[in-house]
Amino acid sequence: MTHSGTILTKRRRWGLLVASVSASMLALSGCGAGGGESAASDGEDSKKSAAQAASDRTEVGALTPRIVLAHEGGMTTLDSSDGSVIDETPVEGYVRLNPSGDGRSVMVSAGSSITAYDTGLIAQAHGDHFHYYTQDPALLSDVTIPAEEPGHVVPHGEKTATFADGTGAITVFDSTALADGQLKTVAETRTDAPHHGVAVPLSDGSLLHTVGTEDERHTVVVEDADGKVTAKTEDCPGVHGEAAAKPDEHGDIVTLGCENGPVMYKDGEFHKIHVDEDFQRSGNQQGHEDSPIVLTDYKVEEDPEGGIERPTKVGLLDTRDGSFDTVDLGSEYWFRSLDRGPDGEALVLTADGELNILDPESGKVLHETKVAEEWTEPDQWQEAGPMLSVADGTAFVADSKNKKLTLVDIDTGKAYQEIDLPEVPHEMQVTTGTASGEYEVSPGADEGGEHSEEGHDHEGEDHEGHDHEDHAEDEAA
Question: What is the pTM of this model?
Answer without folding.
Answer: 0.84
